[in-house]
Amino acid sequence: MARYLMVFIIIIAVLAIVVGYVRLAPSDPAVWHDMPDVTRDTDMANGVERVVPTGPEGLARLAEVALATPRTVLLAGSVGEGMMTFITRSKFWGFPDYTTAKQDGDTLLIYARQRFGSSDLGVNKARVDGWIARL
């Protein structure tokens, strides 16, 4: 019985370390506040890219929508800079997803991706497409 209790305690400790790392790992703007060359709408296993005709105020409107989303904060950038990166965390585990948006004339370029794992199960697509619908 003591052996099972020890194994259980070890499992709980490992789980606590993993959850702590996921929630507390720093998000370096030098790494995540970056935009690839987005040229068309693309769905990937770990995120999405979107090209949205919005007019010149698209980034400002997206910032309002994004920051009204639960568990979403600004990591870096500003409307004045023309590019912003947001972190949205999952409700239960706190997994971070990063969404970078850049105003390019009358077009808004959006790049959303996850930090951990190889598939986001469509979470970034659903969130970004929901934000676009609210624009």
From TrEMBL:
Domain of life: Bacteria
A Pfam family assignment: DUF1499
Species for this entry: Marinibacterium profundimaris
InterPro entries: DUF1499
This protein's name: DUF1499 domain-containing protein
